[in-house]
Amino acid sequence: MNFMGAVGGDGGDDGDDKEKAEEEERERQEAIREAEERRKEKHRKMEEEREKMRQDIRDKYNIKKKEEIVEAAPQEEPNPLMRKKKTPEELAAEAEQEELDDFTKLKNQIETQVNELKTQIEGKCVMQ
């Protein structure tokens, strides 16, 4: 008697299962990406409509639009969890730069105060 086939232990389905799982994962990722694109497009359209309404109000009441300074926004990576981790050297360099900034601010502040005191003293002292 051979019970292997009755129990389902022939072992030939492992490759098919992996391929199916990979295909399902690809389809799931594609569906997520498409949904995200649709969401972004929807919000872009909504913002266009809002801006049109804002412009109509500005035109009606003769209001000038405030000029916004648009800074170059850093390119956001697709997945923030997958961003490149900083090395200890990079972290140390950033910390050192921040310290230098603090020391530079303090130095400038002290120099300003010394110059103010100097002008006050020179104003009180009269050379004959």
From TrEMBL:
Residues 1-56, 71-90 are annotated as: Disordered. SUPFAM superfamilies: SNARE fusion complex (SSF58038). Residues 1-10 have a biased composition (Gly residues). Pfam families: Synaphin. One of its GO terms (molecular function) is syntaxin binding. InterPro entries: Synaphin. GO terms for cellular component: SNARE complex; terminal bouton. GO terms for biological process: regulation of neurotransmitter secretion; synaptic vesicle exocytosis. Positively regulates a late step in synaptic vesicle exocytosis. Belongs to the complexin/synaphin family. This is Complexin isoform X4.
